[in-house]
Amino acid sequence: MAQFFSLAAFTLCGLAILVAGAEALVRGGSSIGLRFGLTPLFIGLTIVACGTSAPELVVSISAALKGKGDISIANVVGSNIFNISVILGITALLMPIRIHLQVIKIDIPIMIGISLLGIGCIASGPLTVIHGLLLVSLLIAYMSFTYIMARREQQRCEVIAVTEVHPQSSRSVLLDLLFVGGGVALMVEGSNLLVDSAVSIASLLGVSEAVIGLTLVATGTSLPELATSIVATYRKSPEVAVGNVVGSNIFNILGILGTTALVTPLSAPGVRSVDLAVMLLATLMLLPLAISGKILSRWEGLLLLLGYGGYLWWLWP
Coiled coil where (predicted)? Predict the structure, then answer.
């Protein structure tokens, strides 16, 4: 029992360091983006979404390099499930989420297509450099497309929705660089601590590393997205949560799986077809929920949370 509590403490420390590093990276990256004249909307859809997904990236690469492919891929699958089911569920319970037509017509369908591609890559066998090049190339194409769309969409309400949640440019370039560099360093250290303690907990509890990756690790690395969504809701901009979740889920598959596959081949025999099916189902469910009145209501948020609870009940022995 003492060993379990010790490992749990190390896990919490790793999560805290990851969240602190992600926050620093988002602040520094957003400020630098504003200095280069990037629109707040583009920063929110790209830098912030990628920044809040940075813990997943660092953890997946760290796990892959240690030969823990189950944790690496399970982290991405579990995070995508958690983002939609829990983050949007909690946000909708706090305040019904208004969903922009552009998100319904463009971003959610893109997320569904990319999720299908990611599932196909995972199910086909080990992820190789070829998979990595394909996924990263699509990420660059998506970010370019998002930039073009953001330049066209300069509506005042969208700009305010992002700038209310994320900071303005700071007064010092050096401070921005320190935030970015310090954030990356913190995330590397936190990810190593998290992966090592998670593997030890899996061994101690007698569960697979994939289960730990799908639940404990995925939940921990999704905390920045959860924090961003709660802050957005508190500041009366809950619609920002949808863009953050959609952007993060797209980045998780294209950026995290793609980059990790470029670093080292990936395979995850512990991630079952049922887990991939749950990720796809959660992704597909978001579209009809979003279309119904263009609002994610409280009862729909509760439905998402109950669905995640059922998945956990089935997953854990």
Answer: none
DSSP string covering 154-168: --HHHHHHHHTTSPP
Q: Which tokens is 187 given?
A: 């995330």
Using CA atoms, how far apart are residues 20 and 84, in angstroms rounded to an integer?
Answer: 23
- For the CA atoms of the chain, what is the radius of gyration? 18
Host domain of residue 63: 2-315
| Per-residue model confidence as pLDDT tens digits over 80-123 | 999 999 999 998 898 888 877 777 888 899 999 999 999 999 98
Question: For position 93, which CATH number holds?
Answer: 1.20.1420.30
pLDDT digits (tens, 9 = 90+) for 251-307: 999 999 999 999 998 888 889 999 999 999 999 999 898 887 778 889 999 999 999
Distance from C-alpha of 2 to C-alpha of 64, rounded to nearest angstrom: 29
Question: Contact at 8 Å (CB) between 288 and 161?
Answer: no
Whole-structure pTM value: 0.79
Are 162 and 30 a contacting pair, CB within 8 Å?
A: no
Each residue of 169-185: b (16+ CB within 10 Å) or e?
ebeeeeebeebbeebbe
Bridge partners (DSSP) of residue 14 are: none
Closest CA to 188 of 22, 7, 76, 50: 22
